[in-house]
Structure formats: structure tokens, C-alpha cells
Amino acid sequence: MLPMHTKRRRTTAESMAHARGLPPRASGNARQMNPLDALLVPPALVKRALEDLHDIAQVARGAVPRLDALSLQLAALNEQLAGTRAAVEPLAGQIAHMEQQLAGLQEEMLPIQHMGAIRRGIEPLEQSMVAVRESVDELEPMITDLDRKIRTIEPRLAEMQDSVEPIGDLAEKIPGNRRRRSG
After folding, report:
1. For residues 74 and 71, what is the distance between their CA atoms, to the nearest angstrom?
2. Residues 66/28, Cβ–Cβ less than 8 Å
3. Would the pTM of this model clear 0.85, i.e. be above it?
4. Model confidence at 98: pLDDT above 50
């Protein structure tokens, strides 16, 4: 009776001689295979193994053109990557320059952070400024009127000076005049 006809089936490894403990090679790596083990393998397993091996060979042959195409794509991507690197490298210097400019702007804008406190300080002054403006508005017509009156007085003063000048000359000639003594 063959092993496949028994109730308990042995695995292929159990039925082969190399699985039953042959002594290891002198190098100690792997055990030797008994050439008769190939005869103990059922033909269906051999056929299936050969078909699988054939399928693997076909896939490997079909993968070669794909690998060549992938290799070409990789080469093109490497060229693009080199171009991208060349374009990106100057950006580091530009970014550093922009960071310096931003730091300068940040220093310039520090006073703006205090703007709220300044506004709170100015708000009470706004009411005072409105009161001053109203006072100035009231004074403007008075100042305009005063200016008009001064312009009318100026010609009169000139006339008066002309008429008082001879009296001043006579006053200097009077004995005991203080101006003469001091002069």
C-alpha cells in the first residue's frame, strides 16, 4: 500500500530521506539530498512545480521591459530632481534675506504694539481739544473785528503824530526839560 492510500498521509518532507536526519555536510551548512527523493515525489507535484516555475519565468521575462521602462522613468525623474534642487538652492539665501527684513520690520513695528495705551491717553485730550476749538471759534470774529479797528486807528495815529511833533519840538526848548538834562 502506498502512503497516499493510508488514512494518515505523510507530508512530502517526512517521506524524503533528507528530512529523516541524514548527517550534515562537512561544511555544516546544509544536508545532502538523496537523488532517490525525486522519485518519491508524486508526478502531480512535479508537474505543478514545473508549471509554477514556468509561470515565474514568464513573469520574470515580462518584468524586464517594465524594469527598463521604470529605469528610464527613474532617470528622467532624477534629471527633474536635479533641476528642482538647482532651482531651490538659491531660495535658501532669499529666505534668509527675507527673514532679516522681517526682523527689521518687527523692530520698527514695536511701537505700534503700544498704540492702545496711546489711544487711551489721547481720548481725554480729545474732549479738551474740542473745547479749545470752540473757544477759538468764538474768538475768531472778535479778532477779525479788532484787526479792522486797528487798521482804522493806524491812519489816525499817523495824523496825530504829525500834529504832535511840533509840540514835542517846543517842549525840548523849554528850560528845565528833563530830556535836555539827560541828553
Report:
1. 5
2. no
3. no
4. yes
